[in-house]
Predict the 3D structure of the following.
Amino acid sequence: MLEAASPLLEVQDLHAFYGESHVLHGVGFSVFAGEVVTLLGRNGAGKTTTLRSIMGIVGKRRGLIRYRGRDLIGLASNRIARLGMGYVPEERGIFAALSVEENLLLPPRVAPGGLSIDAIHILFPNLKERRHSPGTRLSGGEQQMLAIARILRTGAGFILLDEPTEGLAPVIIQQIGRAVRELKRTGLTLLLVEQNFHWAASIADRHYVMEDGRVVDCFSNDDLDANREKLHRYLGV
Amino acid sequence: MMSLLGISSQALFGQLLLGLINGSFYALLSLGLAVIFGMLNVINFAHGAQYMMGAFVAYLLLQFAGIGYWPALVLVPVIIGGFGIVLERTMLCRLYRLDPLYGLLLTFGIAMIIEGLFRYGYGVSGRPYPIPAALQGGYNLGFMFLPVYRAWVVVASLLLCLSTWFAIERTRLGAMLRAATENPVLVQAFGINVPLLVTATYGFGVALAGVAGLLAAPILQVNPLMGSNLIIIVFAVVVIGGMGSILGSILTGFGLGILEGLTKVFYPPASNVVIFVVMVGVLLVKPAGLFGREK
Ligand SMILES: Nc1ncnc2c1ncn2[C@@H]1O[C@H](COP(=O)(O)OP(=O)(O)O)[C@@H](O)[C@H]1O
Ligand SMILES: [Mg+2]
């Protein structure tokens, strides 16, 4: 039983600040190995800040973030990455001064078992064709593929994925969906922030709902229909 | 003997060589400034003082330890680069969260202290540093006399500049540097130790200045003011080339050196100001510099 195991990632009473402004007010949730878990919530609820807190790139945070039994609060972000935490930021973070290939090879391998370049090119053929272009010449969809692909290469076992479908065409969203399901099959654990709830429901095992810097609800994907009313209220759709 | 517009080829090529040599120093120093600025967002005002220290360390190694030019070629960048690393770790690294002006003021102050100390210790008169035996003499090429050491300075500087360009634009380490220049937070979140990269970059830029000082020692005399004399022109070179580009600083450095040499031949009175005239022109037309990126 999953419940019997201890979670791969456990967040408790997490507070985060941008300068003086207090953005997260005691966020708590957990993710078990092999799960795909989403953080849902309206714009400004604190989803991105939660991912950034886990990755160690918000100015100030306190509370408990335990990953594989290690406390991440107080670790520098490069140390957190080396523990096998991979980050695909909302703004994608493709480097203009680097070619597509250099972007792909930039993050160092943090664990064995990452995808080979060939495997990545099979998953995202566009990246192969355009490997010598500057990274930011890619279309939005290709940049998203690149942002995901470069983390898959590192062997990170836990991936933080912030709004991967934001602003993309349906065909591209399907392609990214296929890739994510493929990864799930290989045993990767994903924490996914997503506005596109229908897409998220086709992938995720469990959902947490955030509001005003707190987690306010949680249910499994199987109980989705029973919770649809409530969810629409949370998300304002 | 050939002549052009009444100017002998000896004079023309002689000044051209001098221009190339000056250009070598402009290129090495502005390259270091550009590398440091890209990564640290600090205008390293101590660059001239670090160049002077390079020459002095070579001089002192020879005086007190009998260590000659060739070993100094390795030791000087290590010592000067190490000095830079200590500076970065103890002082500069505290300023990154503040306005870039603080870094400029700190390095300016450090330059004054270093130069003051060397003036106190060694006065302002120049001290000779011998050309290494293997690089003495010269060749008569017919149209000009080519001193071997000067040719070596140009070649060595070109090699250093091009290897630096290659390392930054074509290697994996260089890709990390370029990426960290663009978005250090994300690069660190990928598992790369960015603070270490920053320290190493400063050490490297400063080491380049040190090597330039060693290359200059046998040509100019070693003296505490050699850096502040040069750095004013180098900052003009940087303004002209723009801070944005590695290749840009190399090209601008050599190009302006040559321009200065040619001015000495064709209109000597303007040779001291020609770079500043170009600077004014470039600022009027393209304020970010020839190779700089407009914000
Ligand atoms: N860099 C920042 N500086 C100050 N406030 C910020 C910053 N980034 C986000 N915020 C604020 O923090 C809150 C949570 O933002 P965010 O985590 O980006 O929400 P979400 O990803 O759920 O849309 C918002 O009120 C937002 O305005
Ligand atoms: Mg967000």
